[in-house]
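Q: Can someone sanity-check these two? First one:
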Amino acid sequence: MTLSVGTRIGPYETISHIGSGGMGDVYLARDTKLKRNVALKVLPDTFAGDPDRMARFQREAEVLASLNHANIAHIYGIEGHALVMEHVDGNTLPCPVPVEIAVDYARQIAEALEYAHERGIIHRDLKPANIKVTSDGVLKLLDFGLAKALDTPSGFEPDVTHSPTLTLGATRAGVILGTAAYMSPEQANGKAADRRSDIWSFGAVLFEMLAGTKAFDGESVSDTLASVLKLEPKWKALPAATPPSVRRLIERCLIKDRRQRLQAIGEARILLEHPPMEAPAVPRARRSLLWPALAVVFAIVAAGFAFVHLRERPAPLETTRVRLGTVLLAVATS
């Protein structure tokens, strides 16, 4: 359903069209009762016309509306065929950003994920396009959990031409929803997502914030998915200033076997809140020159020490003469 400026849905009056996504159009609207701006995600007619599907969506939306966290864009409810959400006035997450800012942003993302995971809710579609940064530097995660709420295995095929969010081959478990470059291997294989899938996406987003390039990419969707399933990120793309602890964190998040992956996002949050004091990793080319340099320094120090020590030491011959004279004097006296 397409809305024009000024159209009313309940107490909400549309102001402008924000954009189009795989699951419908998004509008900026005004809540005429509470005098605040909101975002309306209007569902496609084929979706909204199915009572069973809408009932299921209503249940999921009620669960998502229970999330109340500073880093999660709030869902206010459903009005007609539209989902009413908090309108976040900010910019999409930029990439790359300086290391200190990337660490702060990652900490905020981790806090939001931890809060939701503790309540049994996972995002399923974490990516830079679903993260906004306000003018105060506060991150807001958008569309939290909507991938599940809008997952419709009964045959509904959303329009993916305007969105990087994928919908691939229907299975008993449903369709594969997510974005190829940030999708975990298990999601790419059509398996059910869990909190470790969010952890994978978190690692991919943090990598991109630091490197300015995607951890997994390709010329086509199939190439990107193959990269997710088979290849490793280009670790050399991470800046030299990346702390080793942060590099190790990303590596643990991007382990393809989720049983070996970081198991709880709270661990990432703790590390990012209290990063250990450490110098950036020394590149191999520089490490190869380190030991010769240390050897030269050691040789110089040793030579200086020997010079000073020998210079202050009395001559052995003079010592002998003094001792012999003392003995002869003692004998003569006796």
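And here is the second, same format, sequence then tokens:
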Amino acid sequence: MHFPMPVATLSAFVVAVAVILVAGALCVLYGIFVERHWFRARRYRIPVLDPGADSPLTVLHLSDLHMVERDDAKVRFLASLPVPDVAVVTGDFLGDPRAVERVVEVLRPLRGRLASYFVLGSNDLYAPKPLNYAHYFVRSRRKRTSVRGRDADLRQGLLDDGWTDLDNRRTELPVDGTRLEVMGMHDPHIQLADLRLAPRRDPGAVGLAVVHSPDPAPELAAFGWDLILTGHTHGGQVRMPFVGALVTNSHIPTRLCRGLSLVPPSVMHVSPGMGTSKYAPFRFLCRPEATLLELLPRQSGTPAAAEHRGSVSA
């Protein structure tokens, strides 16, 4: 026998659905018009240098700028950042191939006093295109066709400005008696990383590994890289209270997709990035961020990861 729903119950149900829809719409509007332009700079202190290092070393870590031609709020924020000792950009400079000249110009004042390093990401190599958001929740084996971007122009513009290309390359940097062994990998997300570079060559130096995606972090930690700088995840881009990131677009656990983490014996910093795809212009509980890492001398005989707890300030 069918019993009709009481009018009061039906009205309450309709009101509840309306409230949920309105709240959802407000969250979407907030994510599009407020949070994705609400840039912030965070600072961390990491004891990773040799105990005898004379002074701290400041590293500006930027990632996933996804710059487009008109990106005025982002440009103003970048112009407010201090000049670091070392600048590192872990890929996805571009949100549109037409923004090559713009991003090179904007980053020019932020070159490090001692060195400036970069690796490229897939959005630098290929022009963005619309996609189904469900793609991030379901791993597909189907190959997606893409139009080649202007990565050659971007790379040359950065090189002309004095940046060092670390795509599957290594170099070194002497700093006040401390040696840095620096290695970078091309984008693992599109199978361009050369893991043959992962073994350390100078274990007595401080090892800095730079890579767009955090996927190879376990291998890099196993080979003893002291500090791993990476991006790609956008910090999840959409995070829920008490849950955190819904997806990372990578193989790492969602709890590791932004900020500092220990991957013993290494310290890894995953930048939440500063931009979004122009086809997904939305952030929620995951503000765009530039990060200033202050590298400090560690205590004699103590690995960096052991001192990490309690030494980080943001």
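A (reply): Looked at the second one. The longest helix spans residues 7-33. The chain has one domain: 34-308.
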